[in-house]
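Researcher: Before we compare anything, I want clean individual predictions. No alignment, no superposition, just each chain on its own. First chain goes here; please echo the sequence and then give the structure tokens.
Model: Echoing the first chain and its structure:
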Amino acid sequence: MSSNRTDAATSLFVAHRNLLFTVAYEMLGSAADAEDVLQETWLRWSTVDQAEVREPRAYLVRITTRLALNRLRSAQHRREAYVGPWLPEPLLTSPDVADDAELADSISMALMVVLETLGPTERAVFVLREIFGFEFDEIAAAVEKTPATVRQIAHRARQHVEARRPRVSVSPGEARAALDAFRIAVETGDVQAMLNVLAPDVVLISDAGGVKQAALRPILGADKVTRFIAGGLRKAPDFAIEPTVVNGSPALALFVAGEFDGVLAAHTQDGRITGMYIVRNPQKLSWLGEELTLSLR
């Protein structure tokens, strides 16, 4: 490839890089895997004759989608053998992500957990259609199905997700207020205050990959969640909690003996926490060192 063609290819790739990373992350739930997919996308894109490509954005998304689908299918058996629940890798997102309600909702831990219940093709179709707004013929080219089949898959996937995703969105301020109340209750050891900020039917999911202590199954109900947290704190008395922003939403950073130990993301409704997602697996925390800029366009 000539220098001018290389420069043109590079410019187009860089212009769409944030979008491509977001597509891959939404499909894979792994920042590390998404970054690997982008590297592969670039390698393939760099060999393409740009003069033959009418819509670079759609073409790049098609490459990214196919590579992400292949990786997702190959990862399924590893996730089935994973120790305890598998949660998406949390991302430290830039402030503009939190300001974009549509983007923040699309990468929220609550929705990402629901996306894990879809099959690979269903997930790709849902992500491209419902989150990024691609047309059915564009999605069909990416997943190598007919437009009619993609319409059917999209309908099933939408019904599946809507039946499971949180129905109420709250402002970052409301979410932060609930998390601050929870943080203060934990720091002061006030069990009643902790119960007050947890919804009666709260669900806690923790992911440590068998490396650290975590519940091997989801914990249901405020009483059980409170006992689980209190038990964990007794085993790690030298702890600290700090506010942070993960996946576009308020969250908490957890520290034990001065060392970063994990993150707690949450979903709130009516001033109470309804879902808690704790990630302690060190392999899933490596992308929290720098803010990422994501994009739906």
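Researcher: Okay. Second chain, same rules.
Model: Second chain and its structure:
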Amino acid sequence: MLETTHILENSSVEEILPGGNDPYSFDWHEAWYPVHYLEDLDKLKPTAFTLLNKDIVIWWDQQSQSWQVFADECPHRLAPLSEGRINQDGLLECPYHGWTFTGDGNCQHIPQQPEGAQAQTSQRACALSFPTTEQQGLLFVYVGNPENAAKTKVPLIAPLVESPDGWVVINTFRDVPYDALTLLENILDPSHVAYTHHRTVGNRKNASALELEVVKSGKHGFKGVWQQGIQPGQSGELSTTFVAPSLMWHDINAERGRILTVVYATPIRKGECRLFARFPFKFAAKLPGILIKLRPRWYYHLGQNGVLEDDQIFLHYQERYLQAKGGSSNFTKAFYLPTKADSFVFELRQWVNNYNAEPFLGEAFLPAIPKEQLLERYYSHTIKCASCRAALAKIEKLRFWSGVIATVSLASTPLLTRFLDMTSVPAIVFEIVTPLIFASAWWGFSQLQKQFYEGRTIPPRNLPEK
């Protein structure tokens, strides 16, 4: 496996920008993509993922003490290696016939061959490995030409590189049922926040004219500035950066502090991507940062899943309507963009057209899925998030025992009347208060448990006004 981090640090290696050498075309395969937060990966078992239609397996190599990524197929009979295990020797073991692989992809053992045979030394016995690097708490993978990996710039959050100290960062992720380009287009449009996210992170009363201007653009992205903010009194330096093909951030740099809204859109397949959302804060005062750190990560994820669902329930359909009208190549006719609030949306779609940057050119979307499935959270986030998995397990235990105690205390009341004076204060407390407390706890834990599995059927913006 190529150790790209060390090679990139070598001054003799000339750094190149992603997208390939053709100045008029952007190749999505020739770029680094984040596939997982490091804190969510399990070192004891392999993890499956799909990147640009390529099924991959992520696993921890004990010998090199690093994360490795292989094509998710055994060279023997093409069984998915992600269904296997990391065996007692720290090797990745195929679930089908037990072939084992080292971190560099070499086959170490073929149980079925006779003693003294050396079939495992053949190049055909090797697993296909991809370059990886760990940066800013993320595992990045390169699935293009491996010779370009060490030279290609990793898409990092520039403000955190330039000034790494003093940031407080909230992180989340989710596999969303729409394209990476659809996700980027949505996040590059700050004007939708007031309406789409009314009562979550927006307010309709704040909607107003928004002057956005692109000041620099090219094959590798663009930068834009805001003439005003999206909230009353929002001031300071306001800008947006798009780093092709999958990273963008809004930067609000004001006197009271600096706030970034960062999104990576990692393409899985046509109509599906993994969203990595990062919210770095840097405050002039210490108290806001302390308060942010007090809340557990899973608590933030519940709220952020709700925000994502505000527009997830229509973006899934919107991109299909756009494709039916000709896709990005016809966006100026399919969309009506009369205001400067859509400047960044226009620039993204123009970038796609100028550099032939459709990641899944010629592919069609799968049939649309119903709204109920769009609100699913467990498989798109919870089961893949270490914080939410652990929190859900504890909540389910607390819910179970609250129910048991409430039921037992209620059922035991007739029996206790034979032995206790039920007119006494302790007896009344046990008879009435104890079941009530634990029944309420059971109900509360049940409502909380539900939020790890599914979102709200009615978005807050559509609830009746008080």
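Researcher: What stands out in the second chain?
Model: Residues 1-11 have pLDDT under 50 and may be disordered. Additionally, The first strand starts at residue 32 and ends at 37.
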